[in-house]
Design goal:
Blueprint (H helix, E strand, L loop, with lengths): L1 H9 L7 E2 L5 E2 L5 H9 L6 E6 L2 E6 L8 H13 L20 E2 L6 E9 L2 E8 H7 L13 E3 H17 L1 H19 L3 H10 L1
Antiparallel strand pairs: 1-2, 3-4, 5-6, 6-7, 7-8
């Protein structure tokens, strides 16, 4: 599916530009997940799928099929056979304590924990989560954040050193307690209607 997405991007096949919440455009390139979604759509077989309550119903669509049902079923079997299953926990697996908690300072992408094997054996690192997936579908890399990955032992030592300093800082602990007490005092003054509005906002 990544190869298909890459080929579609290489041919410069255009996608309709959707708008995200803040008005930013998205969906301007093909990705493996999009190809997977296309392969799963029954609408290409001339079938309309709609939801009634908590179940899905099917009926003949107003448009003609562009894929026969036999080809569609074969594709579904291949997708099911190639589906990757989540591996059970292993005692030697890296814990990745900062996975999805650290971000790239340049592009803001979330960093996730991964492992790789090199000349020195297996090593763990954090790398861009979204960028890594997108780059596999592009003809040439569009993201060049440096460093693209950070070794686990380097960043975790720095972070936990700062956490230790924070926890052992008595003045900071007192400051936090005063802040919590101040917030709690303000919350107690709220009317039931104000509490409901505040909860809805969060």
């Amino acid at each position: 599916m990544r190869k298909t997405a890459k080929r579609l991007n290489e041919l410069k096949v255009q996608l309709p530009k959707n708008r995200a919440g803040a008005g930013a455009s998205r969906g301007d390139i093909f990705r493996a997940s999009m190809v997977h979604g296309v392969l799963r759509l029954k609408s290409y077989t001339g079938v309309l799928v709609f939801k009634v309550g908590d179940r899905f119903e099917e009926t003949k669509a107003a448009w003609d099929a562009i894929i026969d049902k036999a080809t569609f079923k074969r594709a579904q079997k291949l997708l099911k056979a190639n589906k990757s299953h989540k591996k059970p926990p292993h005692p030697n697996r890296f814990p990745f304590q900062l996975s999805s908690l650290c971000f790239c300072a340049k592009c803001g992408d979330r960093m996730s924990g991964k492992t790789a094997t090199g000349n020195g054996g297996k090593f763990a690192h954090y790398e861009h989560a979204w960028q890594s997936k997108v780059n596999t579908s592009l003809v040439r890399k569009a993201f060049d954040c440096s460093p693209a990955r950070i070794q686990v032992d380097r960043i975790e030592k720095v972070v936990w050193s700062e956490v230790e300093k924070f926890l052992l800082d008595k003045s900071r602990a007192k400051e936090l307690l005063n802040e919590v007490h101040s917030i709690w005092t303000e919350v107690q003054k709220e009317s039931p209607e104000e509490k409901i509005k505040r909860n809805l906002r969060h």
